[in-house]
Backbone:
């Protein structure tokens, strides 16, 4: 058991080093800071609502940037290993494909979670610097649920990338996440007037795609609503864990007997 | 003497658009512990496919393969194997030291034992000065040498070397050959695939020649090659007869 954990952490450690040494995170961080300071310098809605507007925009950007980061980081792991041939020396070691899957997911997810913490820190810092206030408990709840959503997205992207190239996997993951985020919450309104195949298709979408809307506490943070009740908070985390596990198992099923061809090595 | 590699009636069949193709068919061979076996054949003969079965990358369609007594499908079979692929590819964002540290951790090594081993191997291969540099800055020869260090990090009993001197300059080839000789002297079993037949002649105890996935010849060099001819001539004649 200890050696399994050691091997998983060794793979995750390499993903962390890759994240630190690539420019993606730093570019997104500079972009977030620049956009927030640019918004602070223009008075769009008047002083009263400006901080709330900055906070809303900052958290929206934190969601978008963390999505870009996690999909790109996790989506390239397995396809790049195969394309460059690094998968061969890795699998020649006493590591199972399941351990590779979990290590890649853990490394990508935890690196994206840490980056998201920095993004939230920037938003909090800007709001505090301009005398605004954020309820710290709601902000922490918001970050934790955000990170739980990233765990699901990382596992979904990894599952897709077992059978696709990096570009195709990232595009598919973005489309699925966007569909889940925008369409799924509206299904209950849409099904009222639908019958037959359309109704069935909507219900399949509703139950098959993850409910990311449950994990988005931006409105609660921005409008100073009260803390989310801890029972519902725990249920949301449990749901996130279950969905993540389902995607990781699917990734393992797709990857465990995969044949690697040297013809694909570049 | 115990067997390091046992392959019996191995078959690997690929599906292609034009129908199934046997990359390896009915291959049987055994390598004793401490032996250096040259695994030869023209391009597409099935050498790398056989190695990939031994390493568990692909599952055989038929037959069995065991390494140091363990079925190759089990990941623990790879605990005592060191593998150097043809054109070794590594994580280019890591430094040489980090690559070796990661490899050591996967093999269950830690602490001062791992650090000492990394230091020894880097010294042995003349890579100490480059250890903290990113692998993306390494030359072709340095990549091959760091690949060999990675394969040796856990002091394996069996080494699988796929074209270890492929694409290297003469100096690099001599260096790798010397290391293989030292490993042989240390009692390591080496399964060695190469197109450099002069290298094979210098370091191998026995050879196996395969062609179109089938074994053509197996035996000791002195028993197979007639006086006055070399391995290259013998190899060309053997393959030529088949074609």
Residues:
């Amino acid at each position: 058991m200890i050696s399994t954990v050691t091997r998983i952490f060794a793979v995750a450690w390499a993903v962390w080093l890759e994240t630190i040494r690539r420019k993606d995170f730093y570019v997104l961080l500079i972009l977030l800071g620049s956009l927030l300071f640019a918004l602070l310098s223009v008075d769009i809605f008047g002083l009263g609502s400006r901080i709330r507007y900055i906070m809303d925009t900052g958290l929206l950007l934190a969601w978008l940037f963390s999505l870009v980061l996690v999909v790109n980081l996790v989506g390239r792991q397995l396809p790049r290993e195969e394309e460059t041939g690094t998968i061969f020396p890795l699998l020649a070691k006493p590591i199972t494909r399941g351990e590779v899957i979990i290590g890649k997911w853990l490394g990508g997810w935890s690196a994206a979670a840490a980056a998201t913490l920095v993004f939230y820190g920037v938003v909090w810092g800007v709001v505090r610097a301009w005398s605004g206030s954020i309820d710290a408990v709601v902000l922490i709840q918001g970050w934790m649920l955000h990170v739980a959503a990233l765990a699901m997205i990382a596992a979904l992207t990894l599952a897709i990338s077992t059978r696709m190239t990096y570009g195709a996997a990232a595009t598919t993951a973005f489309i699925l996440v966007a569909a889940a985020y925008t369409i799924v919450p509206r299904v209950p309104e849409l099904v009222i007037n639908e019958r037959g195949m359309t109704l069935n298709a909507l219900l399949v979408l509703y139950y098959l795609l993850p409910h990311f809307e449950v994990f988005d506490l931006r409105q609660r943070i921005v409008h100073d609503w009260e803390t989310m009740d801890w029972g519902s908070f725990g249920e949301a985390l449990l749901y996130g864990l279950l969905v993540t596990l389902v995607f990781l198992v699917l990734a393992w099923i797709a990857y465990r007997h995969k044949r690697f061809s040297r013809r694909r090595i570049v | 003497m115990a067997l390091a590699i046992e392959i019996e009636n191995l078959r690997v069949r690929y599906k292609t658009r034009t129908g199934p193709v046997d990359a390896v068919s009915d291959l049987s061979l055994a390598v004793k512990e401490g032996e250096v076996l040259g695994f030869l054949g023209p391009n597409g003969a099935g050498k790398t496919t056989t190695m990939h079965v031994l390493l568990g990358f692909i599952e055989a369609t038929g037959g069995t393969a065991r390494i140091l007594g363990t079925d190759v499908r089990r990941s623990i079979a790879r605990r005592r194997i060191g593998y150097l692929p043809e054109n070794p590819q590594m994580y280019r964002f890591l430094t040489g030291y980090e690559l070796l540290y990661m490899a050591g951790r996967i093999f269950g090594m830690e602490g001062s034992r791992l650090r000492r081993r990394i230091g020894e191997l880097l010294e042995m291969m003349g890579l100490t000065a480059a250890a903290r540099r990113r692998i993306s800055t390494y030359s072709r020869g340095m990549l091959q040498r760091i690949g060999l260090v990675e394969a040796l990090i856990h002091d394996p009993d069996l080494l699988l070397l796929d074209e270890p001197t492929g694409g290297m300059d003469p100096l690099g080839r001599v260096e790798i050959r010397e290391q293989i000789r030292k490993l042989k002297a240390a009692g390591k079993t080496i399964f060695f695939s190469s197109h450099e037949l002069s290298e094979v002649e210098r370091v191998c105890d026995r050879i196996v020649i395969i062609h179109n996935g089938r074994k053509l010849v197996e035996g000791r060099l002195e028993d197979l090659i007639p006086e006055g001819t070399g391995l290259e001539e013998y190899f060309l004649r053997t393959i030529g007869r088949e074609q």
